[in-house]
């Protein structure tokens, strides 16, 4: 097909509309290019529940095998289940998913052996260039001896690995509502939670890549409404919501109130530090709450602040030897999970922490949720750089603030901070603000928005 790869090869993955932007013939070329760039003699491949995923995944496997690589297909899997397979088998891997995107989309998340990330700077650009060349000149010549394609089931081993990383022996009985959003959480949660002292109330566990109930994107508050309502109706202890490929997990407390991912990052950081004798480095991006570095310091750890985005987090995890990392978007990274992100492991930590004491989740997380945040507010602008320069002009001469440009522009004062950063894919500026109290946060948020939207 005549495809424009600049539209579907993103910073961290491949993603586009099927069959309009890409199809099985392109997936086969991506499989061949992946093998060529990684030099892999064997790879592991999985897919989510989208209608187009099995065919795309199979085509990718054929392209890889044609160039001589032996392919292990693990079939239906969450993204972190693919990372588990890549890590434990020490093989490069690919999972076919478009995460939380609508049904007509599909994509590929790629990793090297040991779940090491593949992005624009770590192989994805070379993969794109190979595919573009083959689109013009024809598919590459097959290897003298093609690779084999075999199947394996990793779900039980994945679940056992996660449960070995969290002490769940003293968890009291809990009632938990889980909204899988018709995504891969419906595949992984029953096995991971099997045998735990949990009363599981499932919401939308049927695997359905058309997402008939709501988008599988818990970052949008509209997609948490059903979970919040059910938690209150069931008088449950907590609720969990997974995105489409089940690598992110969002938490709501017993009142149905969302728990900020920064509070979950702080809670898990404290537990991981305790597990490591009160020592270790914790990674957080620059728009997580002040609560995170405070809790880490109080528990004996050190922090490293990074740009937003999993490639930066994973690179810093590897460089610093960090034991854990968290992002505002509910991505949670663990050294004991090959530095990869797994919302399921974070969920087990929350269950262990809640079940290891008698109070409700709202009381437990209060010590990790110390400030008032605005959440992420997007503004459409004609010129991103111009608006950031305008903010810099407003705040640059003030003696009571500091400015840094690690990622966009962060303005910090004694009692508040805000960050403005451009979207990489849309004409948007993203604002995040935080303060010690609600009136201050609202004032700073509105001041910044007035400049952004002027």
UniProtKB/TrEMBL annotation:
Record CDD domains: PMM_PGM
Obligatory cofactor(s): Mg(2+)
Keyword field contains Thylakoid: no
Enzyme Commission no: 5.4.2.8
Pfam family, one: PGM_PMM_III
GO molecular function: phosphomannomutase activity
Keyword Magnesium included in the entry's annotation: yes
Highest rank taxon of the organism: Bacteria
Residue stretches making up the Alpha-D-phosphohexomutase C-terminal domain: 376-448
Alpha-D-phosphohexomutase alpha/beta/alpha domain ranges (all copies): 7-132, 157-256, 266-371
Keywords: Isomerase, Magnesium, Metal-binding, Phosphoprotein
Leader sequence segment: none
Listed InterPro entries: A-D-PHexomutase_a/b/a-I, A-D-PHexomutase_a/b/a-I/II/III, A-D-PHexomutase_a/b/a-II, A-D-PHexomutase_a/b/a-III, A-D-PHexomutase_C, A-D-PHexomutase_C_sf, Alpha-D-phosphohexomutase_SF
Family under the similarity heading: Belongs to the phosphohexose mutase family.
Family matches, as NCBIfam families: PRK09542.1
Alphabetized PANTHER family for the sequence: PHOSPHOMANNOMUTASE (PTHR43771:SF1)
The protein's name in its UniProt record: Phosphomannomutase
Upper taxonomic lineage: Bacteria, Bacillati, Actinomycetota, Actinomycetes, Kitasatosporales
């Amino acid at each position: 097909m005549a495809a424009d790869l600049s539209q579907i090869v993103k910073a961290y993955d491949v993603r586009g509309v099927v069959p309009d932007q890409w199809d099985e013939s392109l997936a086969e070329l991506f499989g061949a290019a992946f093998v060529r760039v990684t030099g892999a003699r064997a790879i592991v491949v999985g897919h989510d529940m989208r209608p187009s995923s099995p065919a795309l995944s199979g085509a990718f496997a054929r392209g890889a095998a044609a160039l001589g690589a032996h392919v292990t297909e693990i079939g239906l899997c969450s993204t972190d289940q693919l990372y588990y397979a890549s890590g434990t088998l020490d093989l490069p891997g690919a999972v076919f998913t478009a995460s939380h995107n609508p049904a007509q989309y599909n994509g590929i998340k790629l990793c090297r052996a040991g779940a090491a990330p593949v992005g624009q700077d770590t192989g994805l650009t070379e993969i794109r260039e190979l595919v573009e060349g083959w689109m013009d000149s024809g598919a590459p010549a097959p290897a003298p001896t093609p690779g084999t394609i075999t199947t394996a089931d990793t779900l039980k081993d994945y679940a056992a690995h996660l449960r070995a990383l969290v002490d769940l022996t003293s968890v009291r009985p809990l009632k938990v509502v889980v909204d899988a959003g018709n995504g891969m959480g419906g595949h992984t949660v029953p096995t991971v939670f099997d045998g735990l002292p949990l009363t599981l109330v499932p919401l939308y566990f049927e695997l359905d890549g058309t997402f008939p109930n709501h988008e599988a994107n818990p970052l949008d508050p509209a997609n948490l409404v059903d979970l919040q309502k059910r938690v209150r109706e069931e008088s449950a202890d907590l609720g969990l919501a997974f995105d489409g490929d089940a690598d992110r997990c969002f938490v709501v407390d017993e009142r149905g109130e969302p728990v900020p991912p920064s509070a979950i990052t702080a809670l898990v950081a404290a537990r991981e530090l305790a597990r490591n004798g009160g020592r270790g480095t914790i990674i957080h991006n620059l728009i997580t709450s002040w609560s995170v570095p405070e809790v880490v310091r109080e528990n004996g750890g050190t922090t490293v602040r990074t740009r937003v985005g999993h490639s930066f987090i994973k690179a810093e995890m590897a460089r610093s030897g960090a034991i854990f990392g968290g992002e505002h978007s509910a991505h949670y990274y663990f050294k004991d999970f090959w530095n990869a992100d797994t919302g399921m492991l974070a969920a087990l930590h929350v269950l262990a922490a809640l079940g290891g004491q008698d109070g409700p989740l709202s009381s437990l997380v209060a010590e990790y949720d110390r400030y008032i945040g605005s959440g992420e507010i997007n503004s459409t602008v004609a010129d991103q750089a111009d608006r950031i320069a305008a903010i810099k002009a407003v705040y640059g001469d003030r003696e009571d603030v500091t400015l840094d440009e690690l990622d966009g522009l962060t303005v910090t004062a004694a009692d508040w901070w805000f960050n403005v950063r451009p979207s990489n894919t849309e004409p948007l500026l993203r604002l995040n603000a935080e303060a010690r109290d609600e009136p201050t946060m609202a004032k700073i948020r509105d001041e910044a928005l007035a400049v952004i939207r002027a």
